[in-house]
Amino acid sequence: MNRIRKAAGALILALGLAATGAFAVGTANASTLPRVQANTNGWSGMVTRPGTIYVGQGGSPFVRHLTWSSWGNSVAFASGQLVQQDSGCTQPSYLCPVSKRPVTVYLHYVQSHNGSPYFKKMRWNWTSRNGHARVMYWLFATYPGASVPAWQLR
C-alpha cells in the first residue's frame, strides 16, 4: 500500500510539472531553454532562472528572491519581491525610501538571437499597499539610437 501511495504521489508531481511546462518527456535540455537578461548587459550574461532581475540602474524597480515554479520552452513563472523606489523622492536614488511587495513574474514571447532563444516580454503583477492590483509590462528590445537591447517599460 505504501508503494502505491509513493507511486501515485510521483505521478501527480510529474503531471503537475508537465502541465506547467517545467517537465515533459522530450523537453529540450537546459542549454536550449530560453534565457532572460537579468542585468543591464545587452546580449551578454543571459541566464535561466535568475534570482534577481534588474531592468535599469539607479532608481529603477527590480525583482529579487525569485523562486521559479516553471521554466519551459515558451513561458516561465516565478514569485518573489518587487523593490520599487517610492514616488516623489527628490534626493539621490540611494537615499530614497523603497516599497517592497510580493510579486509574480511571467516571461513569454520567445525570440532567437544568434540561434539562442530568449524571452522578449516580461510582466510583473503585484498588489499595492492600498490593495489595488498593479502590473508592469516590459519589452527587451533595441531602441532607436541604442546599440544593444534593454528592458523598456511598455
Structure description:
The protein has 154 residues and is mainly β. It is built from one helix and seven strands. Strands 1-2-3-4-5-6-7 form a seven-stranded antiparallel beta sheet, with no helix packed on it. The chain is globular and about 45 Å long. Residues 1-28 have low confidence and may be disordered.
Give a brief description.
This protein has one helix and seven strands. It is mainly β. A hairpin with a 4-residue loop joins β2 (62-71) and β3 (76-85).
Write out key terms for the chains shown.
12% helix, 154 residues, disordered N terminus, mainly beta, 7-stranded antiparallel beta sheet
Rg? 18 Å
Distance between the termini: 54 Å
In what order do the strands lie side by side in the largest sheet? 1-2-3-4-5-6-7
Mass-distribution shape: globular
What is the mean pLDDT? Answer: 84
Q: Summarize the main sheet.
A: 7 strands, antiparallel
Oligomer: single chain
How many beta-strand segments? Answer: 7
Strand content bin: 35-45%
Helix content: 10-25%
Structural class: mainly beta
Sequence of secondary-structure elements = HEEEEEEE
